[in-house]
Amino acid sequence: MNDFSQKIDRVDPETLSSMGQYTLPQILYKQAERFGSQKIAIREKTCGIWQTLDWRAFFRYTKHTALGLMALGIERGETVGLILDNGPEYLFGELGTQAAGAVALPLLPSAPVETLVSELDHVQAAYVFAQNQMQAERLLAHRQELPTVKQIVYIDPTGMKFYGDNPWLVAFSQLLDLGEDLDDEQPDLFIKELWDGNPEDMAVMLATSSAAGTPKLAMLSHTNFTNTASKWVETEPIGIEDNWVPMTPMVGIVEQVWGLGVALCGGLTTNFPEGPETLLGDFIDMGPTLIAGSAGFWEGVAMRVTTSIAGSRKWNHSLFEMTLKTANHMADLESRKEPVSLQLKLKNGLLKRLISRPLLRRIGCSRVRAAYSGGHPVSQEVIRLFRGFGLNIKQCYGLTETCGMVHVHREGEVKLGTVGRPLPGTEIKLTANREILIKSQSNFMGYYQDPDLTSRVLVDGWLHTGDAGTLDEEGHLGIIGRVWEP
Amino acid sequence: MKAFRGAPSLFASTAPENRQAHLEVKDLTLEFGGVTALSKIDISVQSGELISLIGPNGAGKTSLLNCISGHYKPQRGKITLNGEEITHLSPHQLAATGIGRTYQSFELFGEMTVLSNMMMARHAHLKYNAAEALLFSENVQTEEARQREVVEELIDFLEIQAIRKELAANLPMGMRKRVDLGRALALNPKLLILDEPFTGMTLEEKDHMIRFLTELNDTWQQTILLVEHDMSVAMGISEKVIVFDFGIKIAEGSPDFVQNHPQVIKAYLGDV
User: Fold this and answer.
1) Which of A58, A92, A319, B240 could bond A41 through an S-S bridge, CB–CB 3.0 to 4.6 Å?
2) Is there a contact between A171 and B3 if contact means CB atoms under 8 Å apart?
3) What is the 8-class DSSP label of residue A338?
4) Whether residue A177 is found in the same domain as residue A117
5) CATH fit for domain B19-111+173-269, picks 3.30.420.10, 3.40.50.300, 3.40.1080.10, 3.40.630.30
6) Residues of A175-193 as b/e, b for ≥16 C-beta within 10 angstroms?
7) How many helices (H) and strands (E) does chain B have?
8) Inter-chain contact B156–A176, Cβ cutoff 8 Å?
9) Nearest CA in chain B to A161
10) Alpha carbon of A99 to those of A91, A170, A469: distances in Å?
């Protein structure tokens, strides 16, 4: 599809297959050893300038976050809430929590405060990371309803001076200092705590309503994450220092699996814009090589492109149509393995150079090697549009309960109307009423404090997704909708 | 990283003695033909204060600001800043003495970006000459980069990263006001004069503005003289309120005192 003749610098298969033995923070430790300060792990725009963190710095911050939490008094098995915007601190907070043996509970920063408080209370959170003064203020107002929360760690210090020395509030920079001091006192503590972690331990709890139909907290282990992530890195064109950008708040399963799983296992560079409102502007700067977006995101981009083409001159419009038609015609011939005439090849090559590439550059996608669309099935027109002008977009399928996407269009096997074939190690079957059942190491541990529901959804290792689908002879899965539950 | 989000170096690096702003207005009278806009006004702003000037329409609030910032020349009276007379200086000379102001109406360069508007305000602090600028010497390049850093820190402080490259004319009113404040701050003023900074703002934007002003005043001891129409905002953030009516100062004191002052009630509500 795309001429990416350059070699992909992949993580070697042996390393990849060993990932299952480790917890996520342990993988960070391994990667920091492997890449040192040679490779960039995180890039963030601050005050108009892109700042970078290499893998060693990423590890150091995470270590100090974990030690800081230990200095505050965190115990293994406790839960830490994360009410954070996307940024490096998200990764430090979540991985630091896990390194200290605790469980992370990502929460949507824009959720109403009542929701946040009831979730935090439900899991008896011991600590909470809050992005800024606004979030801290919201929690302070409901302090009585949060008896288990020992302290709040806030990231952005702006405006926090007005709270004086409220002992319930700790600045993130202060937490890092505490961690550093503890490291000086007990240099072996972190390594000991890190390697006490077991890959079968719970890593994250995520809110979901995918399989059960009602909002529940799904418990996911480190193994769930490493399994999905290493299978992605193995099958998809993902290489070290590939750029990716979280497109939505990191509370969703896709952002979680990519941010903590794929990025760690595959050695990707995670990019963060200056703020949520600068994302689209910074997108072009970042030049992502991989994009995982929701179907809604891709439909939005498609709409912007088509409306701006429709609003331009007739000449542009017909050139655009011709480009799409030629590219799709050629792709059809190639997929049926029929011969392509030299004339068609030349025409396609010319249009690609003159029309498609500049267009992709305009929307910041000129370097994209693979783009993924999850969530609800995106319309075939949208897929044809993007593939027509050279964006390697693919459909995926997965649930929070399967720890992210377990089905994807493989390279060169994109079949419109389906969500592709299962990742290696993922088994799939359909019941009589066409409900999709999935068996894989990524299947979740269960719902939080709800064994009844868990036993109904997870039977003999098979996850009952509640989605109805079809399977064709080549193993491509099609999604129809929800199964009618009697 | 947001965790290390610091204060703009412009504020942090300015020594408190360089922030001293003691403004005295004595016996100031301003007339337009036969109309007396301001009559025998005496006000005093001490360093580090946040003072609000309120009053009904046409009370002479903006006229007083225009006298202080050199746009109007009063017939009688004297204005001093830190003991130095500034009554008859022109606006650009006043900018150099340390008075920065924002405007009630739109006074940004509409066809320039937010960034350029703010960079423009750093002009007074540039350390190169025209010849060097023409050659774009190394000195000019480092100096420009340094000024850009200063401005970027202010952009971060005011949280206007997303509109940095937008043309000022395309911005909604609330955002223009924020940029206008940014431009005034880029001058690194001793005395910051704000003319109705809250007009045209949504509730949320007002909250942001209040946050910026209180932080400037509390943390950085920025002296602020504020003209405001919105009584609740003015009463909420200022230590001292001065009330004008028909060019005369009718009351001065704490928000509580002013709110219960009979003449103020009369000025706002008429004879009850």
Assistant:
1) A58
2) yes
3) -
4) yes
5) 3.40.50.300
6) bbebbbebbeeeeeebeeb
7) 11, 10
8) no
9) B219
10) 12, 20, 39
Q: Which of A156, A162, A277 sits opposite B2 (nearest CB)?
A: A156
Please give the structure tokens belonging to residue B71.
């746009």
Alpha helices in A253-356 (DSSP H): 253-256, 263-266, 279-286, 295-310, 314-335, 342-351
- For chain B, domain boundaries: 19-111+173-269
Q: For residue A133, which of A169, A100, A108, A104 has the smallest C-alpha distance?
A: A169
Q: Which of A49, A158, A176 sits opposite B5 (nearest CB)?
A: A158
CATH code for position A336: 3.40.50.12780
Residue A276 neighbours by CB under 8 Å, 6+ apart: A85, A86, A249
Beta bridge partners of A151: A127
Q: Are residues A414 and A479 in the same domain?
A: yes
At A135, list the tokens. Answer: 């979030």
- A32-72 pLDDT, tens digit per residue, is 999 999 999 999 999 889 999 999 999 999 999 999 999 99
Contact A277 B162 (CB under 8 A): yes
Q: What are phi and psi of B152, to 5 degrees?
A: -60, -35
Residue written as token pair 């606006």: B91
d(CA A96, CA A104): 9
Residues 6+ positions from A454 with CB-CB distance below 8 Å: A446, A447
Interhelix angle A342-351/A314-335, nearest 10 degrees:
130
User: Averaging pLDDT over each range in A87-96, A162-171, B125-134, which range is the top one?
Assistant: A87-96
Closest C-alpha to A125, from A472, A374, A448: A448
Same domain, A193 and A283: no
Rounded to whole angstroms, how far apart are CA atoms B44 and B46?
6
Instruction: Find the distance separating the first CA and the last CA of chain B, reported in whole Å.
Output: 57
CB B61 within 8 A of CB B54: yes
pLDDT at A2: 45
Subunit contact B3:A274, Cβ cutoff 8 A:
no
What ipTM does the predicted assembly reach? 0.79
Q: Is pTM beyond 0.90 here?
A: no
Distance in angstroms (rounded) separating the CA atoms of residues A452 and A459 = 11
What mean pLDDT value characterizes chain B? Answer: 89
Domain count, chain A: 2
Dihedral, B22, B26, B30, B35 alpha carbons, nearest 10: 130
In angstroms, what separates the C-alpha of B260 from chain A's closest C-alpha?
A: 29
Phi-psi region of A375 (alpha: psi -120 to 50; beta: other; left: phi over 0): left
Model pLDDT for residues B197-219, shown as the tens digit of each residue = 998 888 889 989 998 999 899 88
